[in-house]
Amino acid sequence: MQIEFVLFIVMISIFMVSCFMFKLPVGIAMVLAAVSGSLLGGYGIPIDQLIEGTFGYIDTILVIATAMIFMKVIQESGALHSLNYLIINKFYKRPVIMLMLLMLMVMFPGMISGSSTAAVLSSGAIVAPVFMTLGIPKDVTGAIIAIGGILGMTAPPVNVPAMIIGGGVDLPYVGFTVPLLLLTIPIAIFTVVYLGSKYVKDFDYNSIKDINVRTGEASQGGNYNLPIEERYGIKVYIPIILVLILMVLSKLLPTIVPDLGMPLIFAIGSIVGLFTGEKVNIIKTTKEAIKDALPVLGILMGVGMFIQIMTLTGVRGFIVINSLSLPSILLYLGIAIVIPAFGAVSAFGSASILGVPFVLALLGKNEIITTASLSLIASLGDLVPPTALAGMFAAQVVGEPNYVKVLKKCLVPSIAILVWGLLFIIFAKEIGTIIF
């Protein structure tokens, strides 16, 4: 038995025991697994390697931290709540379109932060009361929000699993926008229509127009967000519009508009958001944003250490070589089963440990398409028990004590995600030719 295989089994075992038996945070569990692998491999505790690994995803960490601050600012300024009200008020006569737009609202925080949890706990909590008032049951609402969270985590502009995989194979995070939109938007539309459309065929607009979309409770005065619209008008949406413009212009006119980088763009949007709506306590808001982001940032630091030690001890090369030798059928089967299963502990960990060798095994195809597709499949880990973060938090948001009921409703959309992702991988070369 090769020593690399033994090291891999030991590292994975310590990682899982730390998570499941001792209930340690995923980031800490990865650090312990990395140190154990280094000790067993005869390298002691290489501080320089561990520090280098910690900073391996510093760019991604900066993106997530600034994105979370931006999200909190526009939430406190009233922009998210006003947008929610605007969708309801303008599209209540077309309930299916309204459901689609509300689904995009659920996805939005995940799109800019790369975290399904952020999407579920912020915009998911805002939209959930509206879904339930429309007549959609709690467990179905929870499923819509959970799927929206993981699709938001996968959608552009910020896709952390894709960034992690790209970092492992020296693939810049460039050119992913269109593939990720094609992977996520159709599934988002299918999910919300499949799960919710039958409940909203006949509903009374008066039952939702008085919903306080900030708290989810009935508003005595009615039309809670109307005062915000009257006071600030389109001004309240300027931070969101500005961020989108800066992202798009740098891609369309690279010779005229320099690429500021997503951290700086989010920082500019956050500063502008302080003056466009409700008063925002920037110190308090920043503290809350960083507190919410810390679990994800800790995981990324742990992932960096884990990958660094895997590389140092030869485990990473061992996995890559053996992945390359797998027959196509076993390769696709491994992608469909192993990546989501390992993602139950951490979708980011699954992307780093398994996503990288699978991309290398698929080098004959379009790397951007395969990386984007693997990131979508890895995101399913947030719906896999026992952790099932997206499902568990969605159940809490809708007040469903048994999160398994929510997960059952997620089954069909999850299968659709898996099949859609695998189709993109199988036909990656052809899809890449059309897109690029």
Q: Any chance you could write out the topology, listing elements then pairs?
A:
Blueprint: H1 3-21, H2 26-40, H3 47-54, H4 58-77, H5 79-91, H6 95-113, H7 116-121, H8 123-133, H9 138-154, H10 160-168, H11 177-196, H12 206-209, E1 211-212, E2 217-218, H13 226-232, H14 238-252, H15 262-273, H16 282-313, H17 315-324, H18 328-342, H19 347-361, H20 367-379, H21 389-398, H22 403-409, H23 411-426, H24 428-435
Antiparallel strand pairs: 1-2
Q: What report would you give on this structure?
A:
A hairpin with a 4-residue loop joins strand 1 (211-212) and strand 2. The radius of gyration is 22 Å and the shape is globular. Helices cover 74% and strands 1% of the residues. The protein has 436 residues and is mainly α. It contains 24 helices and two strands. The termini are far apart. Strands 1-2 form a two-stranded antiparallel sheet.
Short description:
With 436 residues, the protein is mainly α. It is built from 24 helices and two strands. The model is unreliable at 218-225 (pLDDT under 50).
Keywords:
436 residues, two-stranded antiparallel ribbon, 2 strands, single chain
Helix content: over 70%
What is the typical, i.e. mean, pLDDT?
84
Order of helices and strands: HHHHHHHHHHHHEEHHHHHHHHHHHH
Largest sheet: 2 strands, antiparallel
Low-confidence stretches: 218-225
| Strand adjacency order, main sheet | 1-2
The helix tally amounts to 24
Strand percentage lies at under 5%
- Overall, the morphology is globular
The whole-angstrom Rg is: 22 Å
Our measurement of the CA-to-CA distance between the termini, rounded to an integer number of angstroms, reads: 44 Å
How many runs of DSSP E, i.e. beta strands?
2
Going by helix content, strand content and strand pairing, the class is: mainly alpha
